[in-house]
Design a protein that fits this description.
The protein contains one helix and six strands. The relative contact order is 0.14. Strand 5 and strand 6 form a beta hairpin. The chain folds into two domains: 40 residues; 97 residues, OB fold (Dihydrolipoamide Acetyltransferase, E2P) (Beta Barrel). The longest helix has 35 residues. It is an alpha+beta fold.
Length: 152
């Protein structure tokens, strides 16, 4: 049995019309609420980047360094530069900028990683995994992503 204003047919014509309008309004509210809940649950999955490997194009590769303090010697900081690489790749209409921290300061990126080169990459929440030529993966931390027309 329906709850609420389900007995509209027992009322006179003016009250029945008002009852009908209220029923439609309540039904529309329910539909909007249910639709909003479904959209909220499935929207992140619809907008997510696919999990498989995809072909990306390298736009930019930069070697940078962070300076960190090792220790202080009579109020003078003794520092060391830790190198890292910032790699920007384009997938369809989006540019993804990732950071790679090599294990050793002398570890270079693969030689084929130059602007214009294509790679196979897969994306997860905060990481981009790039397939190496030997079949392994190189993990880059995603720093940001933006529409391709807004990069540089």
């Amino acid at each position: 049995m329906r709850r609420g204003l389900g007995r509209c047919h027992l009322l006179d014509s003016v009250e029945a019309g008002l009852c009908f309008i209220l029923n439609v309004w309540l039904m529309n509210r329910r539909c909007i609420l249910i639709g909003s809940l479904i959209l909220a649950v499935f929207l992140p999955h619809l907008l997510a980047v696919e999990k498989g490997y995809q072909t990306v194009t390298i736009i930019d590769v930069q070697q940078k360094a962070r300076t960190r303090v090792l220790y202080y010697l009579v109020n003078t900081p003794i520092t060391e530069d830790d190198p890292f690489y910032q790699v920007a790749v384009q997938l369809r209409d989006t540019v993804w900028v990732g950071e790679f921290n090599p294990r050793h300061a002398d570890d270079p990126l693969p030689e084929s990683w130059k602007a214009g080169a294509t790679l196979q990459a897969r994306f997860e929440k905060h990481a981009m995994f790039v397939k190496r030529s030997d079949g392994g993966e190189l993990q880059l931390t995603i720093l940001k992503h933006m529409p391709a027309n807004k990069y540089h």
